Amino acid sequence: MNIEPRTDWTLEQGVPIGPQLYRILRERIVSADLPPGSRISESEVARTYSLSRQPVREAFIKLAEDGLVEVRPQRGTLVRKISPDAVMDARFVREAIEADIVKLVAENVDEGLVRTLEDQIARQRALPDSEAEAFLALDERFHRTLADAAGKSYAWKVIEDVKLQMDRVRYLSALHFSKRELVIQHSNIADAIIRRDPEGAAEAMRTHLRKILTDLPTIAATRPDFFETAEHGR
Predict the structure, then answer these.
(1) How many Å apart are CA 14 and CA 17, to the nearest integer?
(2) Contact 226, 36 (CB under 8 A)
(3) Among the four 140, 198, 229, 233, which has the fewest Cβ within 10 Å?
(4) Is residue 18 part of a domain?
(5) What are the pLDDT digits (tens) for 94-123?
(6) Residue 28 sits in which domain range?
């Protein structure tokens, strides 16, 4: 397949190549620019980015560890289809961690955080539905802001490590559904924090993260070729 990258997925000079390439390929898989089931090769990626095959091989190994690709000796590398079980596991972990994060935030709110959250939600609300990628970036910033405010940067790192399959569904969901409900849910979380209501904030976060329970079946029915099946495992 054609793996020519967008201009914002090109390598920067003066920055370590290996981590850059891994990040770019990961983002392209999560956003379905490299769609589930597609075949990619070390040689083609190396040629596209004008690299030797060693950093490409290392990036493929990390992507395999993330569950995003399957390296088949002598048969090439495939972008793995989305595992509904992995999506549900990631949601479970996120809910457990982030519900506790917002509890902590609601117990110790400062005016700077209030202004930050209000500004972020205003930016989310202003985006049209067509700006899916921009909205997902703002969504990511919102959740990370809460983790940082709670002093739980390591907890956020744990979330980042487990949520890649969930992010793949979130991206497809942003393409199919209005963002209005998500903005309302973010606003509900922020409002509970501003009221200094830990339990209300936790419940609002749980409601928000459980939206994928209803989105996933719809997305899977719309793009069944993107998802693993129980019968075939991929």
Answers:
(1) 8
(2) yes
(3) 233
(4) yes
(5) 999 999 999 999 999 999 999 999 999 999
(6) 7-79
What pTM did the predictor assign?
0.87
Amino acid at 108: N
- Structure token digits, residue 9: 């997925």
The neighbour count for residue 13, using CB atoms within 10 Å, is 5
Q: How many domains does the chain divide into?
A: 2
Record the tokens describing residue 194, joined without a space. 């501003």
Q: CATH number of the domain that 75 lies in?
A: 1.10.10.10
pLDDT tens string 181-204: 999 999 999 999 999 999 999 999
Residue with tokens 């979380």: 189
